[in-house]
Amino acid sequence: MNPTSLHINQGTDARLLMTRRDALGGSMLGLGALALGSLLNPAKAGGMVRGERSDLPHFRPKAKRIIYLLQNGAPSHVDLFDYKPMLRKEHGKQIPDSLFSGKRLSTMTGGQKDRPVLGEITQFAQHGASGSWVSSFLPYTAGIVDEACFIRSMHTEAVNHAPAITFFLTGSELPGRPSLGSWLTYGLGSESEDLPAFVVMTSRDKEASCGQIFYDFYWGSGFLPSKHQGVKFRGGGDPVLYLSNPDGMNRDVRRGMLDDLAWMNGRGFDRFGDPEIQTRIAQYEMAYKMQASVPDLTDLSKEPAHILEAYGPDVKRPGSYAYNCLMARRLAERGVRFVQLMHAGWDQHRNLNSQLLVQCRDTDQPSAALVRDLKQRGLLEDTLVIWGGEFGRTPFLQGSISDTKTWGRDHHPYVFSLWMAGGGVKAGLNYGASDEFGVNPAEKPMHVHDFQATILHLLGIEHERFTYRFQGRQYRLTDVHGKPVMELIG
After folding, report:
1. Do 149 and 419 contact (CB within 8 A), yes or no?
2. Which end of the chain is more exposed for a tag (fewer CB within 10 A), N or C?
């Protein structure tokens, strides 16, 4: 068989597997050319980039977009949100063994014989009309409790960081599944013509005390077309590499090059039917658009002084959590579907007494400012803000009770807290509860898949009907589990 006939057979085989949508893509220059046309003439596309599922949304959504403030490393629920007087009362005493019978723990305390109860290292008080309990370390969050919905009965299955974060974002502990942002951009598209539908930004504690790594699969597209993966904005220099044209290259020349590339790639798609060719066309076009849109996005000169002050002293430092929160608001008002902020530094195994306050100071004021900022712009009602980690921390001490400098808490997946605001959730609601030691759910337990199903419901999606066929079966974000918790929805 000569090389020419080999190419022809590959193309023929690809067409035998085509869906009707693929067949449409194979005509003329393919869907990539159609996408190019809408990018160059937004009026024809109705001012938005549509998703690949014509059946979505299934019903009228309450939320249009999500800002996920993921606190990488797992904030301590019993020190920040879940007030347990029993911990202070029993401080230093052995926690009942029956509470942990049959439970998996990390290798750091799995073999620890003594498990003394550790009372909260903060002070708790009730706030707002809702009477929500919040730690003294989070005074700004305490000021927005009546905008927030606190879930105090979350539980998960993973006991280590990467699998637990992956589980929250993809529905599986193993890497390889599409992330939540990818699912949403695949299904719903974006309201932005000149920015990615899914943007990721990362930050970490100033002291770099936490060794958590930001893996690319946290915002990967898995088996979905790769054009739906998250675009990571860097914390320094150009937010995206190669955003600026090289010397001697102007926009007219760049436009001509992209037109020629689109034509050649379109012919390649006609021949082979590979959807990743469409991805390349779309990525080239988005990069061209971002050369004009990103400088405006990152120009803070027109932000009022009182807004900058609200986000805190770090707001002008690119790569800081405060800066990223302000960027999240600016992305949301420009129509970006999913913004994923990840802040590392919460993994306090041996430095709870020193580092917990540092993390709270870095994140408390910007998180609350983001909610207030969205509200005063009329964006909070259809923007869902999520704040939380991948699990909680043990109510017992990791280490020795006599060595206060090395106090810490281990990973605790069995119950923990997070909060949401806006996007159709009930404001001022406290949902669920843990037991008196903060070890297990005592009321209305909420699993990760229930949480994911609820998020999709807020976006107008029935999670059981939102699937993608891969390797002979239909996959969904919630795997084969989960149900939306309607009590959380306003």
Report:
1. yes
2. N
